[in-house]
């Protein structure tokens, strides 16, 4: 739990305790979190400083060195994690509302997907907590040798704003199962659900000091985590630019273990034999899901020349019919971008695309006169070296390109500094196999997209980072191997 400062969350004017909260807030630095539908302030959040991170790390260190959590049996840890997961389910509507209001995410999607999937991620790793073991190594020699899998210690988690709940649990769940203690900093844009989860963790019985949530800014609280001398590992999800700073800080401080899940510019390659209806659906969801604020968004779509014309026509029709608006409305498909900074960044990329000579097929404008809404935007006549084909825009902006041969598609798809994901649409198994093995990316989706499951490892090649989330691979990030060797005298071998 957050030890210090207390985390006063209050509604700005309607809360009956507003005046006392205000007095409390005056004692601490605080920052505003805003509703991207309107730009209005939702709440003021106490801002974690370097000193606060230090206090949280001390609590986590104490909990690791002498607290019960790493010493409990895996079964005992699993029981508490299961209770935590059940509490998430019991509070699903409130949690969905917090992520929706803070991040501009679709409320119904948070309720149907983000929140229940996160509870299941906790359950998946609860199931793994009592199956952590080392190996007995080959016995045919004069030594008896075995390995122990030990928790890595105190872990720092720094998470982004696009999936506040999924990112929280993709980090915290395997880390808890491994028996580590931790300090987590949510993104400054979306601190609300993380604070609620800290509260639920306490209710579930996670001991004090094990899970410390400190909201604050990246340059201050985030940097204090990555450069801390008493944090053993840092797990980060966010931009490649920030990932580089985190790795540098880790190297300059105590060489803490680093894992980075960074940006992407993922290709979706559609071949002539594809079902055009299904392929346009995949391409549209691939870029517009969560308003394009997805590290694996299919922001580059390559379509083979035989179906290109029909595909482009259908895709544009569908993009024009896509409903942008209030993300609490069930009929809306796309809410506002997370904040003014992202909104302006996306619009400047759209302007850049026009200047670079790409053809704007649809979109490109803002929607409404308040908040941060942007039309689904599709550019065609893309050249691989254009900025809109190279940079991660993190918005509803698609770059569409025609190709002739499989070799040309592979070359274009790999013409990126990123390597997070790729999609392939074809009925031809040989093409699917060849392309899967030729694309330098950590995740390949054939005839599907965004196919996430708790046991499927996820992570990047190239400048999309290293280390894997999900699966037992993620559990191993929070464990370290100890080899124990003892001589055997008078061995019969
Ligand atoms: P964006 O620019 O899209 O907000 P970031 O990668 O900067 O993406 O943010 C992801 C997370 O990284 C957030 O929690 C943010 O506060 C944190 N962060 C930003 N800058 C730093 C930094 N210099 N050191 C550590 N964490 C940082």
Automatic annotation (TrEMBL):
It catalyses: an aldehyde + NAD(+) + H2O = a carboxylate + NADH + 2 H(+); octanal + NADP(+) + H2O = octanoate + NADPH + 2 H(+). The keyword Oxidoreductase applies. It is found in: Mitochondrion matrix. Its EC number is 1.2.1.3. GO terms for cellular component: mitochondrial matrix. Keywords: NAD, Oxidoreductase. InterPro entries: Ald_DH/histidinol_DH (IPR016161), Ald_DH_C (IPR016163), Ald_DH_CS_CYS (IPR016160), Ald_DH_CS_GLU (IPR029510), Ald_DH_N (IPR016162), Aldehyde_DH_dom (IPR015590). It comes from the Eukaryota. Residues 29-484 form the Aldehyde dehydrogenase domain. GO terms for molecular function: aldehyde dehydrogenase (NAD+) activity. Homotetramer. Belongs to the aldehyde dehydrogenase family. This is Aldehyde dehydrogenase 1.
């Amino acid at each position: 739990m957050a030890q210090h400062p207390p985390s006063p969350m209050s509604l700005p004017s309607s809360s009956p305790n507003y005046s006392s909260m205000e007095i409390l807030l005056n004692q601490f630095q605080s920052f505003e979190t805003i509703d991207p539908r309107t730009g209005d302030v939702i709440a003021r959040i106490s801002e974690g400083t370097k000193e606060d991170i230090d206090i949280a790390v001390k609590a986590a260190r104490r909990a690791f060195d002498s607290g019960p959590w790493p010493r409990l049996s895996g079964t005992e840890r699993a029981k508490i994690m299961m209770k935590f997961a059940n509490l998430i389910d019991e509070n699903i509507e409130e949690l969905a509302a917090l992520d929706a209001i803070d991040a501009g995410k679709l409320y119904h999607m948070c309720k149907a997907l983000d929140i229940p999937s996160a509870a299941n991620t906790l359950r998946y790793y609860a199931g793994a907590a009592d199956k952590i073991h080392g190996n007995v190594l080959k016995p045919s020699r004069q030594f008896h040798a075995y390995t122990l899998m030990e928790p890595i210690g105190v872990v720092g988690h720094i998470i982004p704003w696009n999936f506040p709940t999924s990112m929280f649990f993709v980090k915290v769940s395997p880390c808890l199962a491994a028996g580590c203690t931790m300090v987590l900093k949510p993104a400054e844009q979306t601190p609300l659900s993380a604070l609620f989860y800290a509260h639920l963790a306490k209710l579930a019985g996670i001991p004090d000091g094990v899970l410390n949530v400190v909201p604050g800014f990246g340059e201050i609280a985030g940097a204090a985590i990555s450069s801390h001398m008493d944090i053993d590992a840092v797990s980060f999800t966010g931009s490649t630019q920030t990932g580089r700073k985190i790795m540098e800080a880790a190297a300059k401080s105590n060489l803490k273990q680093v894992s980075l899940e960074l940006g992407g510019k993922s290709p979706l390659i559609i071949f002539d034999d594809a079902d055009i209806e299904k392929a346009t659906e995949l391409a549209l969801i691939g870029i517009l899901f969560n308003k394009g604020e997805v590290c694996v968004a299919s922001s580059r779509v390559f379509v083979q020349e035989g179906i290109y014309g029909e595909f482009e026509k259908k895709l544009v029709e569908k993009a024009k019919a896509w409903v942008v608006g209030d993300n609490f409305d069930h009929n809306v498909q796309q809410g506002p971008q997370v904040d003014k900074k992202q909104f302006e960044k996306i619009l400047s990329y759209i302007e850049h695309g026009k200047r670079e000579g790409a053809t704007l097929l649809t979109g490109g404008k803002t929607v409404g006169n308040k908040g941060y809404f942007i039309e689904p935007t599709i550019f065609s006549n893309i050249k691989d070296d254009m900025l809109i084909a190279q940079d991660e825009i993190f918005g509803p902006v698609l770059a569409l390109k025609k190709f002739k041969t499989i070799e040309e598609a592979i070359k274009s798809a790999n013409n990126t500094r990123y390597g997070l994901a790729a999609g392939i649409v074809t009925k031809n198994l040989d093409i699917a196999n060849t392309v899967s093995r030729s694309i330098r990316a950590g995740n390949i989706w054939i005839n599907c997209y965004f196919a996430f499951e708790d046991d499927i490892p996820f992570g990047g090649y190239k400048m999309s980072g290293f280390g894997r989330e999900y699966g037992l691979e993620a559990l191993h990030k929070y464990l370290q191997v100890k080899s124990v060797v003892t001589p055997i005298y008078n061995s019969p071998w």
